[in-house]
Write a structure and sequence with these properties.
Blueprint: E1 7-11, H1 19-27, E2 40-45, E3 54-56, E4 59-70, H2 73-91, H3 97-111, E5 116-127, E6 132-136, H4 140-153, E7 159-161, H5 168-178, E8 185-195, E9 198-206, H6 213-220, E10 223-232, E11 236-241, E12 246-251, H7 253-262, H8 266-291
Helix pairs in contact: 2-3, 7-8
């Protein structure tokens, strides 16, 4: 169990539920199969075995399941056009716009129950001790989906995205300008620069050395860093972006070898991986917050 992305949220300080209580609430909103004309269904699935909240070393793992019908627009369009052609040929008339919309709706309702379904899982990690929720989501839409269902399922839970005193853009641009990474971090070879006056103008470096005059010149010309590859303590590498998200998380071989040595079977490996991941990220995050000037406290 190794997360690939990290969307970071702060839990309200007064939220005090235990894993059993949280499990009972998630169980009331479990994933159900798409039925009838439903295009999508969302709900909680077992994080492990027969529990919705899997706890390891006081760290909780939860899993949001999503089932979605696969009915491409091209299929609906083709079937609709074929039926339109039959009507026009048999009745010797043109099909109007309203009739065409009605025909398309009828085709959709007829095909939807026969459509294949695709399932996916979005994982969330709750650290009740330090007050964090971490979502392993590669897109804003999947993270928002997870948070929306969690807020709907759990009583009195409040979340807010992590905010820091120094913006990631300012910090990353400053690190590149000085050529110095913050304490316990090294700068890797992935970078995205954007012109401050144009969000569409971007320069991307992939597996490219970031030292030297070229990068310095871009920054002198007013470009800002919106993505930057970093490695923490020679253990965890990631790309930090302007939204304070950690993308392409990679736990380096030394950690995975340690996990493999500690586990004897697949079931145990799952727990060891999760515990090790949570432990390392709980050390990484304070260093990252320090590098970004500390956390903004709620008013």
């Amino acid at each position: 169990m190794w997360f690939r992305n990290l969307r970071i949220y702060r839990l309200a300080a007064d939220w005090k539920q235990g894993p059993e209580q949280l499990n009972d609430q998630l169980a009331k909103n479990l994933l159900k199969r798409c039925s009838g004309l439903d295009m999508i269904s969302r709900g909680w699935v077992y994080a492990k075995h027969d529990t919705f909240v899997h706890s390891v070393n006081k760290q909780w793992l939860v899993a949001l399941g999503v089932e979605q019908k696969l009915l491409p627009a091209s299929v609906i369009r083709q079937e609709t056009q074929e039926r339109m052609a039959i009507i026009e040929a048999e009745q010797d008339r043109k099909v109007g716009r309203k009739e065409m919309r009605d025909l398309r709706d009828a085709v959709t309702q007829e095909l939807l129950p026969k459509a294949f379904s695709r399932k996916r899982t979005t994982w969330g990690w709750i650290d009740p001790t330090n007050g964090w929720l971490m979502v392993d989501a590669g897109s804003d839409a999947k993270a928002d989906e997870f948070v929306e269902v969690l807020l709907h399922s759990v009583d009195d839970i409040q979340l807010r995205p992590l905010q820091t005193e120094v913006s990631p853009i300012s910090a990353m641009t400053g690190w590149l300008a000085t050529g110095e990474a913050p304490a316990n971090f090294t700068i890797d070879d992935d970078l995205e620069l954007r012109a401050a006056a144009s969000a569409q103008s971007a320069i991307r470096y992939v597996k490219h050395a970031l030292e030297g005059k070229e990068i310095q010149q871009h920054i002198s010309d007013g470009k800002i860093a919106t993505k930057l590859g970093l490695t923490w303590n020679d253990k965890v590498s990631f790309v930090l972006n302007d939204k304070l998200q950690l993308k392409r998380l990679a736990f380096l071989d030394v950690l995975k070898e340690e996990a493999e040595q500690s586990a004897r079977e697949a079931d145990e490996q799952f727990d060891v991986d999760f515990a090790l991941m949570a432990g390392e990220l709980n050390l990484l995050l304070p260093d990252l917050l320090l590098a970004l000037g500390g956390e903004v406290k709620p008013a």
